[in-house]
Amino acid sequence: MSKQIDIDDLNIFYGDFRAVEGVSMHIEPKSVTAFIGPSGCGKSTVLRTLNRMHEVIPGASVQGKVFMDGEDIYAAGVDPVNVRREVGMVFQRANPFPTMSIKENVLAGVRLNNKRLSRSEADDLAEKSLRGANLWNEVKDRLDKPGNGLSGGQQQRLCIARAIAVEPSVLLMDEPCSALDPISTLAIEDLIHELKQDFTVVIVTHNMQQAARVSDRTAFFNIAGTGKPGNLIEFNDTDVIFSNPEKDETQNYISGRFG
Ligand SMILES: Nc1ncnc2c1ncn2[C@@H]1O[C@H](COP(=O)(O)OP(=O)(O)OP(=O)(O)O)[C@@H](O)[C@H]1O
Ligand SMILES: [Mg+2]
């Protein structure tokens, strides 16, 4: 199920503004890749091109190619809706549907895809997804209670359960722990470790310890100055990036000497 991703000379625009320039990278299936770099360098922008969410922004466009297991997701005739089903996304702020029950939150994506489920199929899928998101034990006795009655960390795991219920191949996470306390953060990090057995995971994080803890490979992006495009500076094994990076720019950033 898990897919490899190949990004080939991606340039990403908001109107005339080139926000990201010339990004190429190969991401292995069943791996965790962290995107790090200063604010505004284009981490979220690159992430959103991987499931064709960038183009929903008015005026936004993409040049270059993105392949999932060799298939160009930007090829003519590819339905972006299918791409988004294959490539799930979890956002910075947990966004459960507030009036929906916990169970219906988990099933929301599946129902949106017009998939009909029998009562027992729905129960099984909800349980499997909640177990996959390490949330089952905490919510199994209140599946019919509203999703917004959960703690922030639980809500974030609920959103992960919702994303994995549609059985994607790739899971994109944009700073999924930035609104969480340290305990909930560790719970999500443990979960990411488990998720990579089934999914290709790409995570944006500002927390370098987190990148070092959860990822196999790390991509460092940087920006030369305001109004300039973001670039991929170095993409390497996570232990290399954090112990012995090839570029001075990477070293400066990870050691906090960023200017
Ligand atoms: N919807 C948008 N319309 C116009 N410009 C945008 C839009 N979203 C982002 N940008 C611009 O694109 C550039 C990259 O932004 P992006 O959000 O990808 O950065 P980031 O690395 O994720 O930053 P942060 O760490 O702050 O989240 C920035 O200059 C930003 O202002
Ligand atoms: Mg961002």
From TrEMBL:
The keyword ATP-binding applies. This is Phosphate ABC transporter ATP-binding protein PstB. Signal peptide: none annotated. The gene is pstB. One of its GO terms (molecular function) is ATP binding. Keywords: ATP-binding, Nucleotide-binding, Translocase, Transport. CDD domains: ABC_PstB_phosphate_transporter. Pfam families: ABC_tran. NCBIfam families: 3a0107s01c2. InterPro entries: AAA+_ATPase, ABC_transporter-like_ATP-bd, ABC_transporter-like_CS, P-loop_NTPase, PstB-like. PANTHER family: ABC TRANSPORTER I FAMILY MEMBER 17 (PTHR43423:SF1). It comes from Brevibacterium samyangense. Residues 5-248 form the ABC transporter domain.
